[in-house]
């Protein structure tokens, strides 16, 4: 199965519509910060024949598959094996002073979910890995088997918003003394048994929040995002646009805060006149977070939790557009 058959891009039409005004001019530079299997990028390359793509992914396997998918456009693409908070260094290395559009499609990719041996899916047994970059040093098994009960409870609560974090953490520590955890099925079963039966009746799979928390910890996802968004906004050219698609409230909250900071003045509220160069430099393009249509969710269930925010740069070096 090739990349196009394996991957249905989420909210594709809306993402293209939001970024299109910034990419319609010759020589526009588009950054796909989370290339994955290249579905979104393929649409932009097809629709905008003068766009140059710079695609980032931390997963070498994804880069290889996306490269095959985007081969017809090879003269207009540059693929970079890097995490998206490395954007400033990569742009400097490529001699790109500013970008016109950037897309973040956050979270675990379709390919990573579908490949059982990556260990992302709680519903099937696999090694406890969860590394988005298979060359990374720390696996989910390392965390489960070495973190203290307090640290496990902290990440389950902070990154998984798991109400029973302490119960799950205590049980993990007790069970690993008998035998270290190596596979997802045993951990998934432990989580299910640690959560009271009444609480298991709603909210989907009982292990969903625990697996999300471990994945975020393994890959440093929220810290990376906190560094990457300001860097991306700084790299935007005047009238450049940014779209961020997130899949849980933690990512969405970080995005909302980063955008909000750019839509406010950086002077005291009681100043009667805002000095030139201190006006907001961002304008929001979405009201709150936009969600997929019911039709899209029916056709592509993985779109169900998606939420999209977008903004455009309206000021550069003291000028308001």
Index terms:
alpha/beta; DNA polymerase, domain 1; Rossmann fold; 43% helix; 9 strands; 2 domains; single chain; 7-stranded mixed beta sheet; 321 residues
Give a brief rundown of this model.
This protein is of the alpha/beta class.
Measured by DSSP, the beta-strand proportion falls in: 5-15%
What's the number of domains?
Answer: 2
Computed CA radius of gyration, to the nearest angstrom: 21 Å
Find the CATH topology of the largest domain: Rossmann fold
Assigned CATH architecture of the largest domain: 3-Layer(aba) Sandwich
Structural commentary:
The chain has helices at 3-6, 12-23, 39-47, 60-69, 87-94, 110-114, 140-146, 149-160, 165-178, 184-194, 208-219, 221-235, 249-262, 294-299, and strands at 29-32, 52-57, 77-81, 99-105, 236-246, 282-284, 307-313, 315-316, 319-320. It is α/β, with parallel strands linked by helices and 321 residues long. The chain folds into two domains: 3-105 and 221-320, Vaccinia Virus protein VP39 (Rossmann fold, 3-Layer(aba) Sandwich); 120-219, Putative methyltransferase TM0872, insert domain (DNA polymerase, domain 1, Orthogonal Bundle). The longest helix is centred in the C-terminal third of the chain and has 15 residues, at 221-235.
Q: How is the secondary structure organized here?
A:
Blueprint (H helix, E strand, L loop, with lengths): L2 H4 L5 H12 L5 E4 L6 H9 L4 E6 L2 H10 L7 E5 L5 H8 L4 E7 L4 H5 L25 H7 L2 H12 L4 H14 L5 H11 L13 H12 L1 H15 E11 L2 H14 L19 E3 L9 H6 L7 E7 L1 E2 L2 E2 L1
Parallel strand pairs: 1-2, 1-4, 2-3, 4-5
Antiparallel strand pairs: 5-7, 6-7, 8-9
Helix pairs in contact: 2-3, 8-9, 8-11, 9-10, 12-13
């Amino acid at each position: 199965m090739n990349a196009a058959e394996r991957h249905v891009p989420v909210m594709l039409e809306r993402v293209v519509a939001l970024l299109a005004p910034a990419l319609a001019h010759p020589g526009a530079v588009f950054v796909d910060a989370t290339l994955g299997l290249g579905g979104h990028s393929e649409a932009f390359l097809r629709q905008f024949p003068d766009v140059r793509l710079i695609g980032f992914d931390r997963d070498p396997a994804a880069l290889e598959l996306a490269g095959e998918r985007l081969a017809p456009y090879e003269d207009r693409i540059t693929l970079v094996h890097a995490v998206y908070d490395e954007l400033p260094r990569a742009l400097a290395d490529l001699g790109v002073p500013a970008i016109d559009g950037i897309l973040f499609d956050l979270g675990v990719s379709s390919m990573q979910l579908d490949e059982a041996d990556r260990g992302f899916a709680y519903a099937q047994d696999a090694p406890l890995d969860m590394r988005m970059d298979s060359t990374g040093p720390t696996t989910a098994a390392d965390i489960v088997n070495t973190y203290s009960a307090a640290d496990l409870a902290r990440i389950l609560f902070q990154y998984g918003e798991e109400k029973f974090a302490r119960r799950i953490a205590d049980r993990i520590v007790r069970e690993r003394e008998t035998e270290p955890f190596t596979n997802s099925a045993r951990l998934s079963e432990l989580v299910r048994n640690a959560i009271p039966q009444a609480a298991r009746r709603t909210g989907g799979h009982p292990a969903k929040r625990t697996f999300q928390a471990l994945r975020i910890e393994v890959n440093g996802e929220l810290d990376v995002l906190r560094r990457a968004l300001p860097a991306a906004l700084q790299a935007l050219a005047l009238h450049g646009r940014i779209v961020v698609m997130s899949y849980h409230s933690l990512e969405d909250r970080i995005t909302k805060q980063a955008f909000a900071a750019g839509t406010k003045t950086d002077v005291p509220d009681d100043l009667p006149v805002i000095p030139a160069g201190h006006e907001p430099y961002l304008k929001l393009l979405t009201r709150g977070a936009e969600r997929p249509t019911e039709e899209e969710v029916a056709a592509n269930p993985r779109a169900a939790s998606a939420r999209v925010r977008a903004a455009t740069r309206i000021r550069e070096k003291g000028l308001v557009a």
